[in-house]
Amino acid sequence: MPREHVAQVFVQQAGACVRLGSPLYAALLARAAQDIRDGGPCAVAIAGYEDATADDALPLRFLGAVHALALTGRAPGLAAHYPSTGGSYAPEHPDAAWPAFRAAVADEPGWIRDWLTRPPQTNEVGRSNLLLAGLLDTVPSAQLPVRLFELGSSAGLNLRAEQFRYTSGDFAWGPADSSVRLAGAWDGPVPDWLRAGAARHQALRIVERRGCDPSPIDPLSADGSLALRAYVWPDQSERMERLDGALRIAAKVPATIEAAGAAEFLSEVRVEPGTLTVVWHSVMRQYVPREEWAGVEREIARLAASATPDARFAAISFEPREVSGRPGFWLSVRSGTAPERLLASAHPHGLPARWPAHGE
Description:
The protein is α/β, with parallel strands linked by helices. It contains 13 helices and eleven strands. Helices cover 38% and strands 18% of the residues. It starts with a helix and ends in a 6-residue tail after the last strand.
């Protein structure tokens, strides 16, 4: 049955929300799945999407649409249950928000169906924890100008990564007065390679910030900031605080995001003398069709082959992959044509990171 299929997709996402620390969304998705089976308001809202697969991220689109209702004041009853809108949520009462959630869905099916056409774009700032660590390790000398290019940028917030403050125990890097503070950056000891990179670079000199996305978001617009906030899970207040801080930094530090596919975007990039050209991306590869990703790999190989000691190139990624038979999210770095190095693993949202023991 089509409804049962999509209900199972919602149940699957509910399990992911449990693992990723959102009991509120886990409870709501479980109830929404049953409402879909019963032909309730949730079934009406997603009509036409019954064949959606897990890769389509339909539950996240749906949750983002409803969160936007609360954020804009269109669902005040639901806002009273969402910490992101000043409400309260008690994990020991996981179903308390459900009646208000269901009512909001019933009241605004058109709003929700419009949002279902949008890809979920969280632009998770916590992932800068890994990207910046890879950059500190990769830049060979202090004050070498860095040209930064990001694939799947969304709003480009992570293109401002060196503007954030990173701390873990006695380790700290980045502006002390930054509005984005990534505390508890590492689970366990901060690796020696990162300490060495941080000591080598009291600051990084980013001279160009460009990215691409099929549907870029303008973080300085009202619609853009709403979309970014809507896709943050409402019971994860630290993530919302990081986003708010990153939006303030984006207003002061410009970056250019082009509406383009990743391979098309990279085809125009060239290494330049006297600089390090860096291409990075985080948790976006699964959204790129296989043929296009093959084009991305060809372009990265071209850039690596064209690099010289004076015109350097590096590729940095934080993506899901299986290592030693175990799935996880890994930071990898490639400098020029040198072999890829796996530097660390981390929570999918980037915090905390873990320096793997030898042999892992």
